[in-house]
Amino acid sequence: MSEASSSTVIFFADIAGSTRLYDRLGDSDAHRCIVSTIESLNLFVRQHDGVVVEVVGDQVMAYFNSAEQAVQAACVIQRHFDSHKVLAQRIQIRIGFHYGPVLWDSQHPFGDTINVASRMVSLAGGRQVVTTAITAERCSQKEKSRARPFGKANIKGKPHPFNTLKIEWDDSDSTSLFFHGDETKPLVKKNILTLEYKNNAIQLDEHQTFFTMGRGSSCDLVVPSGAASRSHARIECRQGHFVYFDQSSNGTFVMTTGRRANDGQNLHIHHREWVFSGAGWLSLGLPVNENGEDVIRFSVS
Asked: What is the rounded CA–CA span in Å between residue 188 and residue 205?
């Protein structure tokens, strides 16, 4: 039986590159590494008065009564894994969370807030913490000062995009960061990016500041390829120019068409960004000529 609604922070933390961990270590050692990591995540959540709801594979779902607690827990988690290895392995964690109303069923939260929080973690890369401006508004000025504008993200079923923020957890970073509330400076429209996948065409403009792709069901473009990571990459619009960010295990291969020196060659993008221009193909995890029907055609106009 569901209980009355209340508002809380839904918090997701998952292990980036877990598939690569299994490939590198084998099932037994990789499983031990993931179990140890999950135990640490659960401990840090509890230390900041959070409640672990469930663990699914390499992901922890939890909730906090305050945004302040969620930010503090996220920062502690990232600092810990930045300075400590797990069974001699360097582990990277992706974190996303959102404050909003939830319904309860036997102490298990459900509702749109979970969907938004899940979207935040899908935007995050390894060693990143992503939340919504709505959530950061509920923090003290000290925690707000950690927030850096991260663009707008569309949420399935929501009429308007959410302003998102990246939380800077490394106190050794001397860059001054300022939170500017739930406002993002409008981008200048210059181009339209068209993605064609399996006879479906998707057009992106400056209103789709974030667009994600990968084999995970929460991605905007789901590519069910064994070579693709669950959250493989995102596309961001910067002043009308579209930028591709690879955050995958195997990287992305890009082949452009035309008469430029590198046209027709497989460019490997791995954990870095690339600016779209002209036309060509994207291939998640495998060279373009080896990925068959999972190749994505792109063009900028």
From this structure: 10
